[in-house]
Amino acid sequence: MSSEAALWPFIVYFLAVLALVATMLGLSWLLGQRRANQATNLPFESGVLSVGTPQIHFAVEFYLIAIFFVIFDLETVFIFAWAVAFFELGWEGFLAVGLFIFILTIALIYEWRSGALDWGQKTRTGWKPER
What we know:
Methane Monooxygenase Hydroxylase, Chain G, domain 1, 3 helices, two-stranded antiparallel ribbon
């Protein structure tokens, strides 16, 4: 079988995916909801319409803590998988998970020392709100 003949299934699949995506986008535009007026396009929060531009800047610490939680939670899954196969892995597995936990500890110390885990009043330099 030549290399050109082996590519035909991929080309047909790619074209079928493109046709499916184009069909879905076209049908959603054609059959989609029509907005009656501009009021339905305005942001709406708890029964109060927005007025002006937002002057509040949300702190990034909320997102950092969520990302740290996901990272360390995923690492817990790896350690749990090692614990399940503890006897099959032997000393090599023990040394590997020891190195893994050591790297996690270094990463946690780095985050702590860099101030990524500090909460409270922050003083930021380099950005001043316009008034």
